[in-house]
């Protein structure tokens, strides 16, 4: 198998990037708990933080925080923050109470909602102590979800990176798929890889603690999410090797992602085509159904999820859209470089954010569709701009062939709604 080459004379890998450092408008990394706790069926996420953090999760999840079965908040009171109480003892007591009440928990994540200097707790050391105390039944890990130090999807990256050092050592040659996908989407990926003849495939995170993969010098891994740079680095420190590829959004991206894996495992071209031809055709036809609404439309991305560059590649190459600006919280070419190679020059690439300056550019551009966070969507809609919530692209199944049409439809829907409203107003 050969890897997909960029078209002659195109590609954005080497164009200048506008780097901005100012006020940001993004969710914090705590939000990742909402999809991670659904993926890992015997894990529990205990957020150590303030009432504000509890209210955030309650609002973001749409449920009462303590009614949710596998995440909760250990609220720090004023006496804790002032150092007047022994927060370590209180944390140990709360963890013991939780594990006694929930014997099904096999992995417990202590999630910091603020830097350790603020909450007066070293959660890393607390996790080591509690893990020893509750071994072997429960493994306790910690990571930072602070909105001061993380953006929206970095919570998942921090969580998976925290798991890598404690994964068992293996000498087996295996493919590791990295990133939390809905089970039905993960099953589709495993089915495609099996049809290609690749059987030794593991997933991080696994659905249950006793299914966690090993890692070693014979492990090769493919990222399924472009926001997992820290996890990538942690795996490489363990000796694993990264298969760089465009991300599996749309027909082209999925084919390129699979082709990179096929090249690594010497899959014969005939077997690759037999495994992918039918789903590729379904994906093309499904995307075409949404392309009529998207073709020729201009799109502007605010930085939010780190999905922006792969999504822009999909929308411009498969759906006929024109990208005006593609903003991303971080741009790591060792992660999204293959997508940048396929992205035609023209749009502004911006990294980080100064929200006031970017709002000025968005208003001046007046693109047909603006992808942004919840906090910006309603004000921009009020100014006459059609918007798409970036958060929906993380919560909705959008990877691989069978979801390609759904992904295109997510962007077509606000344009259809706006067209319907204009027609209704004209009547």
Task: Describe what this molecule looks like in 3D.
By secondary structure, the chain is α/β, with parallel strands linked by helices. The chain has three domains: 18-24 and 277-426, 3-Layer(aba) Sandwich (Rossmann fold), CATH 3.40.50; 29-150, Rossmann fold; 174-264, 3-Layer(aba) Sandwich (Rossmann fold). Helices cover 45% and strands 16% of the residues. It has 17 helices and 14 strands. The strands form three sheets. A six-stranded parallel beta sheet has the order 1-12-11-10-13-14, with helices on both faces. Helix 2 links the parallel strand 2 and strand 3. Helix 10 crosses helix 12. The longest helix has 26 residues, at 269-294. It is globular and about 65 Å long. The termini are far apart. The model is unreliable at 64-68 (pLDDT under 50).
């Amino acid at each position: 198998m050969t890897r997909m080459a960029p078209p002659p004379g195109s590609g954005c890998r080497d164009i200048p990037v506008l780097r901005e450092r100012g006020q940001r408008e993004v969710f914090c990394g705590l939000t990742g708990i909402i999809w991670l706790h659904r993926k890992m069926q015997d894990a529990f996420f205990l957020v150590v933080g303030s009432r504000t953090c509890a209210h955030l999760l309650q609002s973001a999840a749409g449920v009462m925080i303590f009614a949710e079965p596998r995440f909760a908040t250990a609220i720090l009171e004023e006496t804790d923050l002032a150092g007047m109480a022994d927060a370590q003892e209180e944390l140990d007591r709360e963890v013991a109470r939780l594990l006694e009440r929930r014997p099904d928990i096999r992995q417990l994540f202590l999630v910091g909602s603020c830097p350790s200097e603020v909450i007066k707790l070293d959660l890393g050391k607390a996790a080591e102590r509690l893990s020893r105390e509750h071994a072997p039944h429960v493994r306790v890990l910690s990571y930072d979800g602070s909105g001061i130090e993380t953006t929206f999807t970095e919570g998942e990256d921090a969580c998976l990176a925290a798991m890598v050092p404690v994964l068992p050592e293996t000498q087996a040659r295996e493919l590791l798929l990295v990133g939390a996908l809905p089970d039905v989407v993960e099953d589709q990926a495993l089915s495609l890889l099996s049809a290609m003849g690749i059987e030794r495939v593991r997933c991080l995170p696994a659905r249950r603690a006793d299914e966690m993969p090993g890692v070693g010098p014979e492990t090769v891994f493919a990222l399924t999410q472009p926001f997992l740079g820290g996890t990538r680095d942690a795996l490489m420190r363990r000796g694993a090797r990264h298969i760089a590829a465009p991300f599996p959004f749309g027909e082209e991206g999925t084919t390129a992602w699979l082709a990179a894996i096929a090249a690594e495992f010497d899959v014969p071209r005939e077997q690759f085509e037999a495994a992918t031809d039918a789903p590729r055709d379904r994906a093309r036809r499904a995307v075409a159904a949404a392309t009529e609404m998207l073709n020729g439309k201009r799109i502007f991305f605010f930085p939010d999820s780190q999905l922006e560059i792969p999504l822009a590649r999909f929308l411009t190459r498969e759906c006929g859209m024109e990208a005006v600006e593609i903003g991303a919280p971080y741009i790591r070419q060792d992660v999204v470089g293959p997508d940048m190679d396929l992205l035609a020059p023209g749009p502004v690439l911006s990294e980080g954010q100064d929200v006031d300056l970017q709002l000025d550019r968005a208003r001046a551009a007046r693109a047909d569709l603006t992808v942004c966070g919840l906090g910006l969507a309603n004000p921009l809609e009020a100014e006459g701009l059609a918007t798409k919530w970036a958060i929906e692209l993380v919560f909705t199944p959008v990877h691989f062939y069978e979801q390609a049409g759904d992904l295109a439809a997510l962007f077509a829907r606000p344009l259809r709604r706006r067209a319907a409203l204009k027609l209704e107003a004209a009547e």
